[in-house]
Amino acid sequence: MTTTRNIYAYLLAAAVIVVSILGLLGIWDVLQWEDIKDFFWKGIYSLILILFSGAVILFIFSTIYKTEKKPPSSPFERKEDDRSAA
Fold this sequence. Notes:
Strand content: under 5%
Number of strands: 0
Order of helices and strands: HHH
Distance between the termini: 43 Å
Shape: elongated
């Protein structure tokens, strides 16, 4: 759990650094704002596409792909072996 949180922290920190660098380059007119805006919207559209694709794949696997699982037994049920031993 903490490993996942650390990975997310590094990814978010990297995203903040990238956005900050792009902002600084835009302020100093090294990059044009239109270039930054196009890059941003392409990134957003890509994330939306990945989100919808993941949702469709999740739906397909949750409805079609079924594994045979034995339902868990209740801890309050006593097995036949326990009854015969008592």
